[in-house]
Each structure stands twice: as structure tokens, then as C-alpha cells.
């Protein structure tokens, strides 16, 4: 009896297996592979991106006045440039020649407004001594990176210094014929240098006739910062700036590519027009940025 039951169960199992097959009699095995999580969609932009302002935007004013404007725009992260007069009760200008008294007062002013200097540039020091002073200043103010256009024979030296200080070098890309106008030239500097990356200037790329998305793809994994600007004419090195979102640059694919790459860092507004009355333009750019980022979530 036991053998009969066993035989019947075997036949039933065989019939069930045939019934679950495809119409052609071929077994249709279900793929049980677990899909990898979509890290792009889960990437948290709010905690990884910073909207900042390059204070060159307010270069007709002192740094103290620029900080008032940055504060009015609701921005808390900045990139300072060397040579901007400090203003208020601070003597001198921002850079490696600042006195200890000026540094202390600037730190107090920054703290009172809740603003931090994330980067400085664009700099091109002549020698190692100047680079060391630059890194010392960056370390004192807690910078994440230095935006620069270094000489080719400095690549090894600044990479070593950047590693020792724990502060990256982001090569800025001015328009053609600047030595770093193309991402290919920046990649040449990056090769073999773990602490050198890029400051992606989308406006200068378009001035040079380059597609910013293609450039970002070439530099994937090496983008430390971004300069955010818009221009009126494509492929014209003299093209005028305009309010971001009102020019020829298409920003949706740019932001989407930065998200895909899981970029983490500062996107600095660098508005180079309407110099004396450009705060409303900057505020409008901040709103544009926030609206674009909201669409990515």
C-alpha cells in the first residue's frame, strides 16, 4: 500500500510540474535575482549639496559687505577670492597676507552670521612657499578645497601638500584658450594625483563650445565643486552673464548628472553682471536652484 501511495504521489508531482511549464513544454524558471537598489533615486541631495556664493559676485564691495549680501540671500556657504578688501574694522584684504587680528575678526563676523568659508580661489601661486601659506590659510578657516589653476610643474608638489593638509585642489576651467579650458586637460592633471580634482564651471564650458553634461561625465568621480552661472550666447568666449535660468544653459540635465554621480560638495553662484545691483539676481538664482533640486527628489 505504501508503495502504491508513493507511486501515485510521484505521478501527481510529475503532472503538476508539466502543468506549470510553458505551452511548448519548456520549463519557465522564475528569475529570483534581487535587483540592486537604485542608489541614484535614494541619494539625498539635501545632505550632500550646498548652495554657495563665490564672493567674486560682489567684488565691487568689501568682504564684510559681501557677507551681508550673502546673508540676505539666505546662503550660508561661500567661496572667497584673494584680494577682496575685508572692510568693517578689518584692515587689509582676504588672502595669505591677512594679519592675525584680521583673521580673528573675520572669524567672529562669519560666526555671527552663521556663514562658513568652504573654498577659496581661483588662485595660481608662483611657488611652494606661497602654496604652503595658501594651505595654512585654508586649514585655519576649515576649508574643504582650494580652487586653483596651478602650473603644470606644480602638480606633484600640490598633490603632496593637499594630501598632507587634508584639503583638496579643484582645478578651475576658464574659457578657451586657458590651459584648463577642456576637461581633458584637467584629467591630465588629475592622473596619478589623488588630491587633485575639478571645479566644474558650467558657464565657461558653454563659452568654449562644450556640453557641460559631457564634461561632467568625463570628470566623474573627480568633481569637488561647481561654479553656477548662465550666459546669453553659446560658443562665445566673450558671452555675457545673465541670471541663471534665463540664458542658453540647460540646467535640468546638469543637475540630473550631478545627482547620478552622487556629487557631494558646494555649488557656488558666480554671477558676473549687474555688478552694483546684483543681489536680486542672486536671490532669483537661489530660488531657481531650489526649484530645480526639488524636481530631482
From TrEMBL:
It comes from the Bacteria. Residues 1-17 form the signal peptide. SUPFAM superfamilies: Xylose isomerase-like. Residues 68-287 form the Xylose isomerase-like TIM barrel domain. One of its GO terms (molecular function) is isomerase activity. Keywords: Isomerase, Signal. Gene3D superfamilies: Divalent-metal-dependent TIM barrel enzymes (3.20.20.150). This is Sugar phosphate isomerase/epimerase. It comes from Panacibacter ginsenosidivorans.
Amino acid at each position: 500500500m505504501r508503495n502504491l501511495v508513493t507511486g501515485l504521489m510521484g505521478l501527481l508531482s510529475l503532472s503538476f510540474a508539466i502543468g506549470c511549464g510553458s505551452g511548448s513544454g519548456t520549463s519557465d524558471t522564475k528569475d529570483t535575482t534581487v535587483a540592486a537598489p537604485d542608489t541614484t533615486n535614494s541619494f539625498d541631495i539635501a545632505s550632500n549639496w550646498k548652495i554657495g556664493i563665490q564672493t567674486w559676485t560682489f567684488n565691487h564691495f568689501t568682504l564684510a559687505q559681501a557677507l551681508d549680501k550673502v546673508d540676505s540671500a539666505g546662503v550660508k556657504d561661500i567661496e572667497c577670492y584673494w584680494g577682496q578688501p575685508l572692510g568693517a574694522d578689518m584692515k587689509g584684504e582676504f588672502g595669505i597676507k591677512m594679519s592675525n587680528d584680521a583673521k580673528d575678526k573675520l572669524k567672529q563676523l562669519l560666526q555671527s552670521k552663521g556663514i562658513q568659508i568652504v573654498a577659496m580661489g581661483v588662485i595660481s601661486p608662483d611657488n611652494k612657499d606661497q602654496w604652503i601659506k595658501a594651505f595654512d590659510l585654508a586649514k585655519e578657516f576649515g576649508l574643504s578645497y582650494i580652487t586653483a589653476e596651478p602650473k603644470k610643474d606644480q602638480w606633484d608638489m600640490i598633490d603632496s601638500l593637499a594630501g598632507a593638509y587634508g584639503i583638496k585642489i579643484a582645478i578651475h576651467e576658464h574659457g578657451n584658450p586657458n590651459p584648463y579650458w577642456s576637461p581633458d586637460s584637467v584629467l591630465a592633471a588629475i592622473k596619478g594625483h589623488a588630491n587633485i580634482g575639478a571645479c566644474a564651471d558650467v558657464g565657461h564650458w558653454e563659452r568654449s563650445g562644450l556640453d557641460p553634461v559631457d564634461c561632467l561625465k568625463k570628470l566623474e568621480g573627480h568633481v569637488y565643486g561647481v561654479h553656477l552661472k548662465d550666459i546669453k550666447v553659446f560658443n562665445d568666449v566673450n558671452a555675457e552673464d545673465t541670471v541663471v535660468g534665463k540664458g542658453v544653459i540647460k540646467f535640468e540635465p546638469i543637475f540630473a548628472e550631478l545627482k547620478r554621480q552622487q556629487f557631494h560638495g558646494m555649488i557656488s553662484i558666480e554671477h558676473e553682471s549687474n555688478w552694483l545691483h546684483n543681489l536680486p539676481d542672486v536671490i532669483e538664482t537661489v530660488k531657481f536652484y531650489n526649484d530645480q533640486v526639488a524636481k530631482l527628489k
